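Materials and Methods. Structural model of Histidine--tRNA ligase. The 412-residue sequence of Histidine--tRNA ligase from Solirubrobacter deserti was retrieved and submitted for structure prediction as follows.
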Amino acid sequence: MSRFQTPPGTSDVLPEKAAERDRLEQTAKKILEKAGYGRIETPTFEFTELFARGVGEATDVVQKEMFNLEADSGTSYTLRPEGTAPVMRAYMEHGMHKLPQPVKLWYLSSYFRNETPQAHRYRQFSQLGIEAIGSPDPAVDAEVILLLAEILEAIGVRDVTLLLASLGQPESRAEYREELVAYLRAHEDQLSREVVDRIDLNPLRAFDSKDPRTREVMAKAPRLIDRLPQEDLDHFAEVQDLLQAAHLAYTVDTTLVRGLDYYTRTLFEFQSGQLGATQNALGGGGRYDGLAQALGGPPTPGIGWAAGVERMLSASTQPPPVEAPVDLFVAYHPEHKVAAFKLASDARRAGHSARLELAGRSVKGQLKQASRVRPRYVAIFTDEGVELRDRDGGEDKLVAPETVMHHIRGTL
Ligand code: AMP
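The predicted structure was written out as tokens:
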């Protein structure tokens, strides 16, 4: 073994896992593109400022988890920790407001957060995500939620629950925030150190605390949902009506908080019991009608979600994908190497899958290898010609090398 290993919180994706990811990607692509989503790819790094403004200075992500890069004498870039701010940047940079709204985009890429690695929490991970930008209609909220539910079902994720909340808009949240800060201050002595330290910075995160005494205090804390103005309640009610019409079960969770700052109104998270008790979030998202303005653009409504690919795969109960069958295995005595090589390459050009001995094995060794691969045909180059074995019950034949393709064509 070399003295190098993958850095903490990262891992290699070996072919078997890559095949599972590939299947997930194909499934998601099919579902999303049928709903009108187009794929977008943004750079792996962006100006640090984009995330500072777009994700929010007060968030854990910006405060503690960004991998920053220095370049261009003093300009700071950051490996993307999330996909929404970059996609909104791209929407504005490319004038996508001129397209029919909402603009629907999906992505699957690597993201980077400098977190303490643990089960289901990595420093490099993949997210599948979508963003629907340009419409405030509650139907968009319901549609994006349904799409994630459909993907989770299609990839065989079991034991899924959907939590739903509404955060209202910034004005109602600001008033509520003051009320919550006052409540937290009044109970400071019963709250965890971490929560107390962040009362002014991000009081809503207190609902996220795992500390038992803090949880007791939070159980009686004022709830945002009881303070929302009618407009926000109407929006939330319509989202729920639409989800019910689509028969999607959900639980309203008035304590749901998510780590990113830009959410307004609808907020949701899909969890799976298969992931254990703490890192059980498969994915989630919400509406971010204030994000474009936070990035210096015009008011632009939007909603989206991101789901962790590693978590979805580990909560999936689907059997591993079966490998594609091999059509032809070419074995040969050393003096027929060139002709054997040519046959394998002709077969591939004709669209068949073909394997050729590449490690100098004896013919016996090659045939052993062939029985592992289980091809439809085995062609063995000998001095007498090519022995063509049909493993699908056909007869073994001795044929001329240049006729092998003719013999297998039409049967595969
Ligand atoms: P977020 O962008 O924080 O809302 O995360 C969306 C989803 O991405 C989560 O529900 C997880 O499934 C996944 N995720 C976020 N952070 C990590 C991480 N550090 N390691 C693995 N998956 C993650």
